[in-house]
Request: fold
Amino acid sequence: MRLCDARDALSRLASQSVVAEGTVRLDLGAEVARLALDSPRTGNAVTVRMMAELADAVVALQDWEGAALVVEATGGRAFCSGGNLRDVRRVIDSPGRARTMALAMGRVLDSLLALPVTSVADVHGLAIGGGAELATAVDFRVLGPHGRLHFVHGRLGIAPGWGGAGRLVEHIGRRRALQVLHEGRALGPDEAAQIGLAEGARSVEEVLAPVLALDPAAARALKLQVVAARPVRSIGDEAEAFAAVWGGPAHRAALRRLARHSR
Reply:
């Protein structure tokens, strides 16, 4: 699936969206762009409409000529609490739609990582489920004192649905990726840094300083070379694995537990 096809697929799904709250904002500066999730009342949970907006933002960034991108979120409680369950459960109501969403979001986030700019996620709160997957779609992750990366999928009876498993392998290797996915623990700044998933005590500004010291064209060329060396992954296989368990018995049981706890 090409990025334009992914954007179209998400736009069609978004026409069924039931939650209007939340948006994705893109600010294109001269050298640094900022991509922000803006739905603080929901922990920056991503609605299907926001998925389509994210696709639009990535398309716009492909034509931008700056050097660096910061992915961030409004409010300090959560970087991203994954998909908005009220919206996603209603729209993604069949294995076919689950497969479509997984293919499309996998392509969008892979395209985000493949942009010819150096990207950093500014994770000041919880990045859980799809939020943790979003955090894998950039080159560097900076975790604040309360930042957490939580690949909780297995405990919910599902698997990553936005291509996060494959990107996790790229960042930390197969063995550690399996450990992170199987254990399903929230990783704080120190542990995430120890396994190579975060930047330790460095700030976003410190991470980007060497990039911004270069001519933007040179910085983009370096990123393009790194992208060219990436291994080829099968997003389709990842989407099939996700669709096979979405809405299954273990997933439904986990959703019932979450519903009880939220009362």
Q: What stands out?
A: The chain has one domain: 3-203+216-261. Residues 3-203+216-261 form a domain with the 2-enoyl-CoA Hydratase; Chain A, domain 1 fold (CATH 3.90.226.10).
